[in-house]
Design brief:
Layout (H helix, E strand, L loop, with lengths): L6 E8 L6 H13 L5 E8 L6 H11 L3 E6 L5 H11 L4 E4 L10 H10 L4 E8 L5 H18 L7 E8 H8 L8 H8 L3 E7 L12 H15 L2 H31 L6 H33 L7 E5 L22
Parallel strand pairs: 1-2, 1-4, 2-3, 5-7
Antiparallel strand pairs: 3-8, 4-6, 5-6
Length: about 325
């Protein structure tokens, strides 16, 4: 396949980005025009936006037929919107990116150059995150270090979804059927030959992020429980340690009673032991519950998302491949 016939799919999840979409299109189009050896398609996934994002995308498509829209029936979350866009991508490569321009469009050219060198995946890594708060930068560093320690050093620190994936790595990613998705971990799990492109992460061009501390915390839990069973295993060691301390304490009480007689038990020591053991039991049950909840979600076999309409996916022009109605994996034709 010659470069002139290569199609590159830009995958853009959208949730209440009415104010950012015009800026995004205005910024990315000149970058694409500077790459005459490639063809491009925009795959916008409207993740149940409550503003005018969909109407704005429909109007933009009237002027630019490269724009294709996957419209969800409701909000399913960014991870599933990203999965839908990547599954709909028909290009020889796909580039997921945000509409808020925190993923600089000019990096697309650098991604393409690395792809031409033979890399399967080109990862954008943020070398500076001045637009983020100090707490967000620090908590992100802690999460990457903790995740890589538990899961075997799989994530590239400060790497988000912004990257280029060739067809082979994209098909491998799309074949993974998880409903509770931690896409950053899935990128690392499928592997392939990777290159890194560093960039400075700017501030949002418009609007406000929908990610708050609570959502980030739950996202981190999804990531850890999706790729490591260590939180379950650690309670075996904690239980063994507590039981050992209990036996040692029981032996000490027995010896003291034999040597010095019966002592009146103290209420504070009983309460401390009761509260500590009870707290450990509740924490262990909470960890088990997290994994059990994910088993429950996966066992129901529901589709990853529901699409209300697909706009612009004409036959022979970027039509998404047939997918399994349960897991979203591509079906052979």
């Amino acid at each position: 396949m010659s470069q002139a016939s290569k199609l590159v799919s830009l995958v853009i999840p959208v949730y209440n980005e009415e104010s950012a979409i015009p800026h995004f299109l205005a910024a990315v189009r000149p970058v694409l025009e500077a790459e005459p050896d490639y063809r491009f398609e925009f795959i916008f996934v409207n993740d149940g936006s409550r503003d005018g994002s969909l109407e704005l995308l429909l109007a933009a498509r009237e002027e630019d037929p490269r724009i294709r829209i996957v419209d969800f029936s409701r909000n399913f979350g960014k991870e599933l919107a990203l999965a839908a866009g990547l599954q709909a991508a028909s290009g020889a490569a796909a580039i997921p990116m945000d509409a808020d321009l925190q993923d600089p469009p000019e990096l697309i050219s650098s991604f393409l150059r690395k792809w031409e060198e033979g890399y399967d995946v080109v990862v954008g890594v943020r070398k500076r995150r001045d637009a983020d708060t100090a707490f967000k930068r620090r908590s992100a560093a802690w999460f990457y270090a903790f995740f890589n320690y538990l899961c075997g050093r799989r994530l590239v620190p400060n790497a988000g979804d912004y990257r280029l994936m060739n067809r082979a790595s994209l098909d491998a990613l799309n074949s993974l059927p998880e409903r509770v998705r931690f896409t950053k971990g899935l990128y690392a799990w499928v592997g392939f030959r990777q290159a890194i492109v560093l960039y400075d992460r700017p501030a949002r061009v418009a609007g406000n992020t929908s990610w708050n501390v609570w959502k980030l915390w739950n996202f981190a839990l999804d990531g850890i429980t999706s790729f490591s069973t260590f939180p379950l295993r650690i309670w075996s060691y904690i239980g063994f340690g507590v039981a050992l301390l209990g036996f040692v304490y029981a032996a000490w009480l027995t010896a003291r009673t034999l040597l010095f007689g019966v002592d009146v038990p103290g209420y504070p020591s009983q309460m401390v032991a009761l509260l500590v053991i009870g707290g450990l039991i509740l924490m262990s049950l909470g960890i088990i519950g997290e994994y059990l909840g994910r088993i429950f979600e996966e066992s129901k076999g529901r589709p990853q998302y529901i699409v209300r309409s697909r706009i612009g996916f004409d036959a022979g022009a970027g039509e998404p491949p047939a997918r399994c109605p349960h897991c979203g994996a591509p079906l052979s034709r």
